[in-house]
Design brief:
With about 375 residues, this protein is an alpha+beta fold. The chain contains nine helices and 14 strands. α1 packs across α4, α1 packs antiparallel against α5 and α6 runs antiparallel to α8.
Length: about 375
Amino acid sequence: MLKLHTERGVSRPDIRSSTPRHLFRLCAVMTFMTFMSIGFAGVSAARGEAIVDSRDAGAAAQAFLASLDNAQRSEAVAAINAPDRGTWTYLAGARTGLRLGDLLPAQGVAFDRFLATALSETGLRRVREVLAVEPTSDRGRGVRTGPGEYWIRFYGTPVPSRSTTEEPGQEREPASDAWAWRLEGHHLSLNVAMVDGLVVSVTPFFFGAAPSTHAELGEPLALDDSRAERLLASLDPIQKAAAMGIGPAPADVRSGTGSRPKMPRDGGVKAASLSTAQKAELDALIVGLLDVWPAGSTDHLRKRWKQTDSEAIRFAWAGSARRNGPHYWRVTSPSLVLEFSNSSPAVNHAHLVLRTTDDEFPGR
């Protein structure tokens, strides 16, 4: 592991170093990715299989909290209805909770084991990609960005999750009560709620990237943006006119950072007017993001999406018709809102957010 200046043992680089900024960023990212991979590899070896099972998330959360001292635990845990529950942001700056850069190595391993059970392999990879392009910087007045500038917060008392693969009639003491967790910092916000051992909410969910394309580390949001571009390109002239009839590209996503999303204005092409292939591309935009969480944990959202009347689903695009120009797109429905923005003139600052309209922050 590359060695950096630290506060309590991990991951705050010395930003006053004379090392060139891009090399410094890569060092910080490599250290943080190595740090995360310890826990990932450890769990893989213990199970002898890929990490896709969500049933251990509660137990992994308990193990992580047990690794903390009392002061750390008081920062990491709050009541399910704590005042900061229901607040979230993707702006740079400190959050409530426990800062990842303050974890000791063994605590970091325990945290990684929790994250590896709470997310799918796809989700863990995508989180790493977002963190990898995040620049390490000091913006002054205590505002910093970088791999260690993320905060974990638990609400309520984690309990072992109920298995989605238990055999009928299998005896198991049921879980009870509600708990939730949030992992958040600049350009990342994961919010998950559990009730009776089952995942009931995974939104607000936010990924960002600035730069949106990194010469060495890639483009974290390319998968989603490319799918939307392919869908737009497949539309016939009438469909495309409807999709692009929402006006100029907004400067950012419109649904906001409140406890309930602001619904974007109507407009766009109806899913009912799309061909089978076009509908499949539209479905992939939603399902691709739900794949961030373990199999079975987002079945309730997949079912709601599948059962939504296609007359009530719309796809809209604004700005350049190609994603190498400033652009914005969204998918709206009565239950789900997906937005993407990369509309700055430099086309190098991307935001992606998934919101649900009526079930975020349950138990608050």
